[in-house]
């Protein structure tokens, strides 16, 4: 039998090896899944991971899909590092889409360069507002932010539905639950001719760089890391848990709101009853696969964006259901969580001498578990 | 009276899945494990239960299949959390994301398939009582089972030896381990029980509450069940109270529409989620209450060191 033995220090290599190993295992599991569904695994994997990238348009679409994922995941990572679980990014994205879309509709057919900046501000404000509710409830009443932010996601979805069926509905739209198509001044500029790649992608890249600098070079980044790894030490140093809760929720809420505004103003171009295929939830996977690090998140965002494109391409070329994407994403996270055991533990054979080593490790392991489990 | 009876009946059907899922999660949490994957397990139970009935025609087989699907998914959770020392929060979220995708994949050919719903079982003599008989003694089996589970879970946790060990594991896994109790095995059973109960909750949704399969049909009930456990401060009888309270709120919209009240349906649909938040706030406000009642080791990883 095998036994887990705590490493004296977390392995830095394993932090990077684990996602690759998880990806490999996901592909293997995918092959089994495809065989089970009676599809040729080679064709399916080709359709999923290669076909979408055989054209410039495909590469541009990768950026389009990665934009919301990266924007949200980079900022979620900040909270996750501090042990603040904002699970409601999907709802904050929806609010950003509603507020950004509202500005676009208010300034319908107004030709001004200020429409887009105003939409950006409205989107960020909407997302921040929606994230401020769990932040307030957590800091004031100690209500669990996982549950409150998630409940608000459902409320946001219903609010969007209400508005699209009501005040935001296109007056000339034959009662379809859709808004007017935005006028040109409310559409994000395209940065690659002939594709849908818009300036939102540049915003996402800018946020990655900003987050990197923040986490590596600023006091608030340091506070986040300390409070996440050693809450007692953080409190002793006078870092405020309350401030970090507000900071990380407003940050990720604002970014999710921006992502929502980018979705309605970029690829969609109007307000629809659904504006996201679950980007807010997938971003959670992106954050973990990207090791909660801005650069890692960027790469992971591209990978998960590919899974969306692959799902669409496999649906067209092989008639596979779109739900395969979700299964792939879930499996990737499962395998990642399993592989992450290698960061803190070594797997060793259970034999005589090893148990002696394990016993030596006992004191070490207990102290480590104690610090880990905040 | 014409409105009252159907109202009570719909409250009962709306409360039953919440009751199943929350009682299951209660046991899991009492053992010191927080499984945030309830939503995913409910969906798996819903689609597998429905598929089983569709292909076999047997309602009881459907319920068993739902329970098995929920338990199977919770087994993945258990392997990751107990075996691989993964974070319970992250793994639970993964379980929900996976469950949503998997159920949509399994159920793609079942959308639009009709089913009559679970047969109603009238309890002899009692169901003949005027009014009361109609309201309380003519339900499908699962309603009775869910109500029976409440005293059962309560008795198990309060008086049974196994229940006391389970609570000890949840309150101090190190002490329980030192006393020689198999912490990991006990938690495994608690997680599996939670999974099976969530699976039954799902089967109830797709077989009785609205007998069909729709993607994401649980609509956040798994998360509401999680909130219910906090609301109930980990006590089975209060779970019952909470489940029926929420059942009542969630069916308000149906009856408001029927009575012609001019509130948009979306606003009415928001109610259960808003009330969940409100209730969480009211309970969590009193930190001592939470601290006194919640299992002390909840969410903490356990690594046996000797």
TrEMBL record, chain A:
<protein>
    <submittedName>
        <fullName>Sugar ABC transporter permease</fullName>
    </submittedName>
</protein>
<feature type="transmembrane region" description="Helical">
    <location>
        <begin position="20"/>
        <end position="39"/>
    </location>
</feature>
<feature type="transmembrane region" description="Helical">
    <location>
        <begin position="59"/>
        <end position="80"/>
    </location>
</feature>
<feature type="transmembrane region" description="Helical">
    <location>
        <begin position="92"/>
        <end position="108"/>
    </location>
</feature>
<dbReference type="InterPro" id="IPR001851">
    <property type="entry name" value="ABC_transp_permease"/>
</dbReference>
<feature type="transmembrane region" description="Helical">
    <location>
        <begin position="114"/>
        <end position="137"/>
    </location>
</feature>
<feature type="transmembrane region" description="Helical">
    <location>
        <begin position="149"/>
        <end position="168"/>
    </location>
</feature>
<feature type="transmembrane region" description="Helical">
    <location>
        <begin position="243"/>
        <end position="262"/>
    </location>
</feature>
<dbReference type="Pfam" id="PF02653">
    <property type="entry name" value="BPD_transp_2"/>
</dbReference>
<keyword id="KW-1133">Transmembrane helix</keyword>
<feature type="transmembrane region" description="Helical">
    <location>
        <begin position="199"/>
        <end position="222"/>
    </location>
</feature>
<feature type="transmembrane region" description="Helical">
    <location>
        <begin position="268"/>
        <end position="288"/>
    </location>
</feature>
<feature type="transmembrane region" description="Helical">
    <location>
        <begin position="323"/>
        <end position="343"/>
    </location>
</feature>
<keyword id="KW-0472">Membrane</keyword>
<keyword id="KW-1003">Cell membrane</keyword>
<dbReference type="GO" id="GO:0022857">
    <property type="term" value="F:transmembrane transporter activity"/>
</dbReference>
<feature type="transmembrane region" description="Helical">
    <location>
        <begin position="295"/>
        <end position="311"/>
    </location>
</feature>
<dbReference type="GO" id="GO:0005886">
    <property type="term" value="C:plasma membrane"/>
</dbReference>
<keyword id="KW-0812">Transmembrane</keyword>
TrEMBL record, chain B:
<dbReference type="InterPro" id="IPR001851">
    <property type="entry name" value="ABC_transp_permease"/>
</dbReference>
<feature type="transmembrane region" description="Helical">
    <location>
        <begin position="61"/>
        <end position="82"/>
    </location>
</feature>
<keyword id="KW-1003">Cell membrane</keyword>
<dbReference type="GO" id="GO:0005886">
    <property type="term" value="C:plasma membrane"/>
</dbReference>
<feature type="transmembrane region" description="Helical">
    <location>
        <begin position="239"/>
        <end position="256"/>
    </location>
</feature>
<protein>
    <submittedName>
        <fullName>ABC transporter permease</fullName>
    </submittedName>
</protein>
<keyword id="KW-1133">Transmembrane helix</keyword>
<dbReference type="GO" id="GO:0022857">
    <property type="term" value="F:transmembrane transporter activity"/>
</dbReference>
<feature type="transmembrane region" description="Helical">
    <location>
        <begin position="213"/>
        <end position="232"/>
    </location>
</feature>
<keyword id="KW-0472">Membrane</keyword>
<feature type="transmembrane region" description="Helical">
    <location>
        <begin position="6"/>
        <end position="24"/>
    </location>
</feature>
<feature type="transmembrane region" description="Helical">
    <location>
        <begin position="262"/>
        <end position="283"/>
    </location>
</feature>
<feature type="transmembrane region" description="Helical">
    <location>
        <begin position="188"/>
        <end position="207"/>
    </location>
</feature>
<feature type="transmembrane region" description="Helical">
    <location>
        <begin position="135"/>
        <end position="157"/>
    </location>
</feature>
<feature type="transmembrane region" description="Helical">
    <location>
        <begin position="36"/>
        <end position="55"/>
    </location>
</feature>
<feature type="transmembrane region" description="Helical">
    <location>
        <begin position="89"/>
        <end position="115"/>
    </location>
</feature>
<dbReference type="Pfam" id="PF02653">
    <property type="entry name" value="BPD_transp_2"/>
</dbReference>
<keyword id="KW-0812">Transmembrane</keyword>
């Amino acid at each position: 039998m095998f036994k887990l033995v705590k490493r004296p220090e977390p392995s830095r290599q394993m932090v990077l090896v684990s996602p690759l190993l998880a990806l490999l295992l996901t592909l293997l599991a995918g092959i089994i899944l495809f065989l089970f569904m009676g599809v040729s695994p080679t064709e399916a994997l080709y359709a999923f991971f290669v076909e979408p990238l055989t054209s410039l348009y495909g590469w541009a679409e990768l950026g389009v899909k990665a934009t919301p994922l990266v924007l949200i995941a980079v900022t979620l990572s900040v909270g996750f590092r501090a042990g603040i679980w904002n699970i409601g990014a999907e709802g904050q994205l929806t609010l950003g889409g509603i507020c950004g879309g509202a500005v676009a509709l208010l300034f319908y057919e107004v030709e001004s360069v200020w429409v887009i900046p105003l939409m950006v501000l409205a989107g960020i404000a909407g997302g921040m507002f929606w994230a401020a509710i769990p932040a307030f409830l957590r800091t004031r009443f100690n209500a669990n932010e996982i549950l409150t932010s998630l409940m608000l996601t459902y409320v946001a979805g219903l609010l969007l539905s209400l508005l699209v069926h009501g005040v935001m509905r296109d007056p000339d739209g034959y009662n379809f639950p859709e808004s007017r198509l935005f006028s040109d001044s409310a559409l994000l500029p395209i940065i690659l001719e002939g594709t849908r790649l818009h300036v939102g992608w540049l915003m996402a890249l800018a946020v990655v760089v900003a987050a990197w600098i923040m986490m590596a070079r600023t006091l608030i980044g340091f506070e986040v890391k300390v409070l996440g790894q050693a809450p007692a030490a953080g409190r002793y140093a006078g870092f405020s848990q309350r401030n970090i809760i507000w900071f990380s929720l407003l940050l990720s809420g604002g970014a999710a709101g921006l992502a929502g505004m980018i979705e309605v103003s970029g690829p969609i171009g109007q307000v629809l009853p659904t504006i996201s295929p679950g980007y807010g939830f997938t971003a959670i996977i992106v954050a973990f696969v990207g090791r909660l690090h801005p650069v890692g998140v960027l790469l992971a965002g591209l990978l998960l964006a590919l899974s969306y494109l692959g799902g669409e391409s496999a649906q067209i070329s092989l008639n596979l259901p779109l739900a395969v994407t979700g299964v792939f994403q879930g499996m990737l996270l499962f395998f990642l969580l399993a592989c992450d055991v290698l960061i803190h533990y070594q797997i060793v054979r259970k034999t005589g001498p090893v148990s002696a080593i394990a016993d030596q490790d006992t004191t070490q392991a207990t102290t480590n578990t104690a610090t880990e489990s905040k | 009276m014409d409105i009252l009876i159907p109202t009570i009946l719909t409250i009962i059907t709306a409360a039953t899945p919440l009751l199943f899922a929350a009682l299951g999660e209660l046991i899991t949490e009492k053992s010191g494990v927080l499984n945030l994957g309830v939503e995913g397990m409910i969906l798996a139970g819903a689609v597998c239960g429905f598929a089983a009935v569709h292909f076999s025609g047997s309602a009881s087989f459907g319920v068993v299949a739902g329970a098995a699907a929920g338990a199977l998914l919770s087994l993945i959770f258990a392997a990751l959390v107990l075996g691989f020392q993964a974070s319970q929060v992250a793994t639970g979220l993964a379980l929900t994301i996976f469950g949503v995708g998997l159920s949509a994949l399994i159920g793609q050919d079942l959308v639009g398939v009709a089913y009559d719903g679970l047969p109603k079982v009238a309890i002899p003599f009692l169901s003949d009582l005027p009014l009361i008989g109609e309201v309380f003694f003519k339900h499908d089996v699962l309603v009775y089972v869910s109500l029976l589970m409440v005293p059962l879970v309560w008795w198990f946790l309060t008086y049974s030896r196994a229940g006391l060990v389970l609570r000890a594991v949840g309150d101090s896994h190190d002490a329980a381990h030192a006393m020689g109790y198999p912490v990991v095995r006990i938690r495994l059973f608690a997680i599996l029980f939670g999974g099976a109960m969530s699976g039954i909750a799902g089967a109830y949704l797709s077989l009785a509450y609205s007998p069909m399969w729709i993607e994401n049909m649980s609509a956040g009930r798994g998360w509401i069940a999680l909130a219910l456990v906090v609301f109930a401060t980990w006590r089975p009888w209060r779970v019952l109270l909470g489940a029926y309270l929420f059942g009542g709120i969630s069916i308000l919209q149906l009856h408001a529409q029927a009575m012609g009240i001019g509130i948009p349906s979306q606003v009415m649909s928001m109610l259960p989620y808003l009330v969940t938040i409100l209730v969480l706030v009211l309970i969590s406000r009193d930190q001592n209450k939470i601290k006194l009642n919640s299992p002390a080791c909840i969410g903490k990883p356990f690594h046996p060191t000797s």
